[in-house]
Amino acid sequence: MSPEWLVLLPLFALLAGLILELGVARLLSARGKGWLAFTSSLVALGGVLASWPTILRGQALDARLLTWDGPATLAYHVDGLSFLFALMAAGIGAVVLLYAIDYMAEDRAATRFYALMLAFIAGLIHLVYSADLLLLYLSWEVIGLCSFLLVGHWYRQREAAAGARKVLVMTHLAGYGLLAAVLLLYARTGSTLWTDPQIAAAFSTGLFLLMLLAAIAKSVQFPLHTWIPEAMAAPTPVSALLHAACYVKAGVYLIARLHSLGPWPVEWQILVIWIGTVTMLVGVLYAIVQADLKRLLAFHTVSQIGYMVLGLGLGTPLGLAAGLLHCLNHGLFKGGLFLCAGAVQHAAGTRDMNRLGGLAGRMPTTTILWLVQAGSIAGAPLLSGFVSKWLLYNAALEAGQFVPALVAWLVSVLTAFSFLKATSGVFLGAESPAAIRAHESPRPMLIGGTLLAAASLGVGVAPQVVIRYLINPILPALGVQPVIEISWLGLTIGSGAWFATGGLILALAAVGVDALIYWLAQPRQPLVPVGATLSVSAGGVFTGGEPLTGPGRLPASDFSLIVRQGLAPFYHWAEVDRYYLALWRFLLRLSERLGQASQWLERQAVPATLALSVALLLSIAIYVGQVGNSSYLSQAGVAGPTVRAAGWPLLAGVGLALLALLLTASSIPAARRALPLMMVTGLLAGLGLGVDQPLLRLILLEGSALTALALVWQTATARLAARVYLLAVLLSAVATVSGLLSLNTAPPQLVLALLLTGFALKLALVPLYLWLPPAAEAAPAPVIGLVVAVVDMAAFGELLTLRQAAPWLFAPAAPWLGLAVLSALGGAGLMLAQRDLKRLLAFSTIEDMGCLLLGVTLGGELGLTGAMLGATVHALAKALLFASLSAVEGEGPPTLERRGLAVRYPLSGAGFLVGALAVLGVPPTLGYAAHWRLYSTAAQAGWPFLAALLLATALAVLAYARVIAQCWWGPGQGGDDARGEPVAVRVALVGLSVILVLVGLWPGVVSGG
Hints:
Strand content: under 5%
Shape: globular
Largest sheet: 2 strands, antiparallel
Radius of gyration: 30 Å
Helix content: over 70%
Structural class: mainly alpha
Strand order of the largest sheet: 1-2
Low-confidence stretches: 524-551, 638-645
Number of strands: 4
């Protein structure tokens, strides 16, 4: 079989399953959809295993298929490291999907669940197979998006909405570190292939830290770990896949892959070692105070990945081997533990350990599986966790890292103690009321857990098989030699050095010390309830005055209370969420202050707009007159290329946006009477974009602006909004027409001042934006959507054309760049102050215009193409966002005070989400193709420009994430009956969403890449 097919087979199997899930959604039951997903994952597993012989021969699979977008190609490099992570994704993914068949059998959204699960698995496989860094980042964010949507699967629950929001914010914002590193590497080398030797030569400490930041958030390392306990609102199969196979392992893969770029400096090693060391200790200390079974497992994920990061930081052959072996072992035992936790919740109706107990009699098989996997994570001999932990102790001692070795040992003791507590509280003792109605899980759920438990036992008994056939083939790709073989049970190492014995002693002592601690904590006689405490049956108070509660046993909260009180200073200072919340409150207060100033200006919008326009015009004319040089003056009036920058993609995007908004308006009473004028406005704008004759284009575009003015005047509910829009349209028309007509005759500084002022008014750039927020609030959603998505984008098309026709206008770049950065940051910052969703979208438009203007000003192929694609995305996405608000607006103003809108308008909620992702440039939407070009152009111009764009986008992410989680998701208000949207609105929402996603999957269709 050719390398191409070996690479593509697992991806094709998963994508085919995803398409079938969507195609036969109405034909299959939830169980049928589960079996379909499981079958697809089995085929994918077979496809991954098909590449194993090549990997064992020490070879890599290299496949380079088609150009994807710009310099990015479908280039793949599958070596031992890629194979290990793909095997975990496909293998554990198949087990989880088998388990989900019964677990999700009654779920009404099974199609969405299984489609996202398959995309989740495919995303990680594509990530570890990709040799192209732009596609690696795309896969990175696709699995992030899948995680966000799966954590929010039960979006009607407040906890699910809040957890999903936290997942998106923390991991996506940190992910910009990876994107920035990729774009800076591209700017330095002109290559996007990590296999290219130029990439390794150009790699630096700064780029390493950027990538490490993304990996820390993804792999839940301190201090970016706090999203993972909130993600426990997801269905248990999601938790298992997220922890054991796909999501958190992506960060581990990235850290490991950085070893392929060359030897690490000592400083990198020390940093990563201590990140792992601190993380494992923080994770386990939070785990032991949890009473929720899944949250306990979540914090143990934090801790156990700290072990892996420690091994990768050591960088020695044994350290890398131990870290990667523990990564595999973690997938086995943590996947099994989550499946057991899900079985407990499925059977008993709760995962609160205070309400559980005595389940061993009702769920004997689940109990046995739990004990095997709990023993493995605790490091009990004969199980997989024992071997990898011993090797990690050994590697740390060998490298002279004695403190990390001792911390790792202490963490193992506390891990074992924690699981003894959980085992006692959930499965042992007298039956709790919740346990009385419990029952053993269905067979498919048990088969999945049994497979993982058997694998944990097999690796513990014969670890040399895994070392020889999985781990050793990886190490040469990481720049080290294979490790010396270990024997059965992992009891001996060929080196025979003292640190091997030391590692073994630590591993065995961890189990013994923990058992002793737990035994000493138990009462010597049975406990009986006496009032509010527990007493020993023979007399005397066992608790020493502690207010212990429970039916004759020590429940989880009793241990938690004692530990939390004893380590109160640690839990106070290590609670990093309070620092993040303080930063969030600061941003909100700052945004509110800016919002108050903006609203004051809006109340004086007419005189303020006039004054600011004059001030901007004069200041630009004076500035250009002072800094203008003979070269600039000699270029004035010289025509540039005749090629139109505003090509067919923008024209098509504006046309589709117009069609969608007309369909929406036809079904919305408030906008229906304006339909004829909307058609005229859109037709004039489209014709203006489509003609090449400058004078005719100018007439059509200005005519579109004037009809848009009539449209707003007809429909706006506030006269002030209409008046300030009238002033903006007239001033912009005068300035733009005067500048264009005098392009080759007037003084260049005057022409530049006129045109820049005119376009600043048309595109609502800061500070000449005062017309847009009031108009957005006062006009119906389809009407203001037409202004933003069609009329303004037609004007932006004229700016793109002008950039090529008269490049000398942008030679003094400072005025353009100043307005661009100010608009991007100001628009994004003011988004956070908005309560009205239409005003929020207005400020999002201002932020978009700033980013697009930066690309136009800096120019170059990437800058202009990125601006053109960005304008296309803006037209489609803003039309989708305003169309999503149209049905909601019929019941009242769409504000943040509205709750659970997606319950009543599910398709509008989905459309708003897709539109927001596209505007933010989140893969796989078309917005990614535009954003990486704009970011790359900014990176080539200087890191401050890249930082400004990323900061603006990050603020916009915060604003949109709050709206989705707080306004669209969560419990519905006024009943949970889905009202739905009119048919025409549904067609518009689905059509725009499909275009943004499908074209985003293959952006070369519109970018020419």
